[in-house]
Specification:
- The complex is a heterodimer of chains A (144) and B (138).
- The termini of chain A are far apart.
- In chain A, 78% of the residues lie in helices and 0% in strands.
- By secondary structure, chain A is mostly helical.
- Chain A has seven helices and no strands.
- With 138 residues, chain B is mainly alpha-helical.
- Chain B folds into two domains: 88 residues, no CATH class; 38 residues, no CATH class.
- In chain B, α1 packs across α3 and α2 packs antiparallel against α3.
- Chain B is globular, with a radius of gyration of 18 Å.
- Chain B starts with 6 loop residues before the first helix and ends with a helix.
- Classes of the chains: A mainly alpha (144), B mainly alpha (138).
Chain lengths: 144, 138
Amino acid sequence: MPMPAVLKAKWFWYSLLCVLCWGGWALCSKLGSNEIPARTMQFIFTFGALPVAVLLLILKRFQFENSPIGIFYGTANGVLSGIGGLALFAAYRSGGNTSVITAATALYPMITVLLAISILRERLTWLQVLGLGFAAAAIIIFSL
Amino acid sequence: MHLAPWFWFAVVVLVCWGIVGLLQKLSTNHLSAEWALIWLVVGFLILQPWLYPGNVLLTYSSRSLLWALLSGVFNALGAWALLAALKSGGKASVVSPFTALYPLVVVLVAPLILHESINLLQGVGVVCALAAVVLLST
């Protein structure tokens, strides 16, 4: 049986790795939030993320990429991710069901997709649109 | 209408991370995945002075502190993988929803680790999520 083209695509495997890592992140976030308040969670969380950045810096042999606009997007990404993460820790700490909160907050790609289509002018196939529908259905069901 | 206490926090997450999904793609248009992740962590560091909890930090159990640290490690590794997916040709409109299916891991593992059960409806949600992954990957 021939291998589906997607299984040969690097982005697919990177995405799968991301799903597994973020599954671990969500669980660790909940376990930590049982005792630690949101602000402190985000503070300590950053010290967990820091070694990964340092490791990548070493792997890149400290070769600086000079792109002011890229640096702006990357840093803004971190600030907004951090504020979002802070709100997520607060949501976990408020005592709701972990699966429900995780799934509800994972609705964010709906906003990303709308922005990607309108700003980046990306196009979707009808199968991918159907996939988005299933993703939305899954997230809504998890939130019930 | 009664809204759960976590609802408004979830709205903040949705808005922030919805924009983040776009910024991730824009940053990898100009930087490697590795440098995009490094600047993302710099963004985290900018918030640190405001978040600094003081001496109270030492009062928490080492186990909870370890979970918080591991949370950061897993998040950064996942973010790097996502940025690498975008850098290697994945569309933001496909990679972002695909990687947002990480709650599937939580739904599957939560009963074992957190002792939170999953009902039939959530089981249907798992099937929908799997279908979504297959369709989004076409």
